[in-house]
Amino acid sequence: MSDTKQYMVVITDGRERAKSCYGYTWEPVGEWTEAKDWNPEPVMKGGLLGQHPEAGGFGYPFTGTVPELVEIEGPITMLQFEDLNRQVYQGGIKVRRAKRIAVGNLDVPEMPRRWWSLNFSGCTGRIVLPAGLTVTWFYMPNCTGLRELPVELTSSEIDVSYCSNLRRIGKGLLAGQLLAVGCTRLREISAGLSVDTIDVSGCTSLREMPNDLKARRIVGLENTGIPA
What we know:
Number of strands: 14
Shape: elongated
Distance between the termini: 52 Å
Structural class: mainly beta
Number of domains: 2
Strand order of the largest sheet: 6-7-9-11-13-14
Radius of gyration: 18 Å
Helix content: under 10%
Order of helices and strands: EEEEEEEEEEEEEE
């Protein structure tokens, strides 16, 4: 890991003294929080847990509603988890000290633009993302706080299924697979979309696709508002 400033994303309840998984209470924005029960072993408890640009977020346990960007300091423990098939994945990191930088609105200069994965599944608080993100795996189903995908987002797979308040997919999105199933308020897919597969099943407010759309496979057009 680099000696320069490092950051991670945590999921909290978004309050002034926010709470995150395992009952940690965070100091207000701009102040340092320290895990008093710090344990450097690669176990879930005993530290402040988060999603790191190099470690991903699959398997990261959270009970909050809002993603926050935090600066991290001190020792870092990489975490892993096994799925039901005993496949091992990187599951985020654990740190001793962290400082809250941004709550919900992640469109700030400190936000890293490259991530191995991000998991915002089920977040209900307002989410604003910066332009030019590259996220290998972006997992955001049932994110009611997400209203638009940013411009020039690049990913192998993006899942925004059942994001009931998603209205717009930004210009220049590049992805292997884009799953937007059940996004009933999605009205605009901007120009420059290039994907291998896109699924818009149940996007009943969607009236048209961009003229310059590049897609090998389009799923669910018959279940949208686009005229046959």
